[in-house]
TrEMBL record:
Keywords: Coiled coil, Golgi apparatus, Membrane, Protein transport, Transport. Belongs to the COG1 family. It is a peripheral membrane protein. Residues 20-47 form a coiled coil. Signal peptide: none annotated. InterPro entries: COG1. One of its GO terms (cellular component) is Golgi membrane. This is Conserved oligomeric Golgi complex subunit 1. The keyword Coiled coil applies. The keyword Coiled coil applies. GO terms for biological process: protein transport.
Length: 271
């Protein structure tokens, strides 16, 4: 019975057209088709259940992860509250009495005035440090200014009184650019051919205070640029070779002084 669709046969016509042996063969084919359909059904149901099981496992994992995130957020809130309480040196001041004395002779207004005076004078000090190459002090002055600015935002006693002082934002706009200015000046100094280890150390420490980066990678990257500029911007070949040699020697000496020498000192101290 070639080409016969076993699921489309009519039982009444089977006995008219086929012999008993052919009908038995057809019956076997039908049974095989039934078993194949059953197996497909089992596989289909199994895959659906497998998807459901995987979805349930994923939901359970999401629940555990969500609980961990909630716990971490609660820990952060607790830590921030403790940090704010630790660094709040003033006594609690009610909103209705902002001029209440915080110390024996100091009021909240006095503290605000002192900190505003600090923000007013700080840019001049920072510029002087940048011009003299003292990038460590310049970075520390910026961090101090940022600490004062943050204090006005998180300290309730200061925030209630200073909320209407537009001068704070004006002062901060004069200070907020200092990280970029300091880092730009640092990069310009690191490009110099004859930079001594002390100046290199000042540049690197100032950078470490302002950004989270690998100092060694940054230093080698800038010094590579310095070497490239020395070789490409010099018309005299002899002068270019001598200058590039000076850059390489200076770089290695500063690298040993600022990094390797410190490591040897630490290892010696530990042993």
């Amino acid at each position: 019975m070639p080409g016969l669709q076993v699921l489309e046969v009519e039982p009444d016509k089977l006995f008219e057209k086929y012999t008993v042996s052919e009908i038995e063969s057809l019956q076997k084919s039908i049974n095989d088709e039934i078993e194949r359909k059953r197996e497909e059904l089992r596989t289909l149901v199994g895959e659906r259940y497998r998807d459901l099981i995987e979805a349930a496992d994923t939901i359970a994992d999401m629940k555990i992860l969500s609980e961990q995130v909630i716990g971490d957020v609660e820990c952060m809130n607790t830590a921030l509250a403790q940090l704010q309480k630790k660094h709040c040196v003033r006594q609690p001041t009610t909103v209705s009495k902002p001029s209440r004395a915080v110390g024996s002779n100091c009021t909240v207004e006095d503290e605000i005035a002192a900190q505003i005076k600090l923000l007013v004078d700080l840019p001049e000090f920072a510029w002087n440090c940048i011009e003299s190459g003292d990038y460590v002090t310049a970075a520390q002055l910026f961090l101090l200014a940022r600490h004062v600015k943050t204090g006005f935002s998180v300290d309730k006693a200061l925030k209630d009184v200073s909320s209407n002082l537009t001068v704070l934002e004006q002062l901060w706009s004069m200070i907020s650019h200092f990280p970029a200015t300091i880092l730009k000046a640092v990069e310009a100094d690191l490009l110099k051919t004859d930079l001594c280890p002390k100046e290199t150390c000042s540049c690197l420490v100032g950078t470490a205070l302002l950004e989270n980066s690998s100092l060694v990678s940054k230093y080698l990257s800038v010094r590579s640029r310095a070497l490239t500029e020395t070789l490409t911007k010099t018309d005299d070949v002899r002068s270019g070779i001598l200058s590039s040699h000076s850059v390489v020697v200076n770089t290695m000496y500063s690298l040993q002084h600022c990094f390797i020498g410190i490591l040897f000192h630490v290892f010696k101290f530990m042993t």
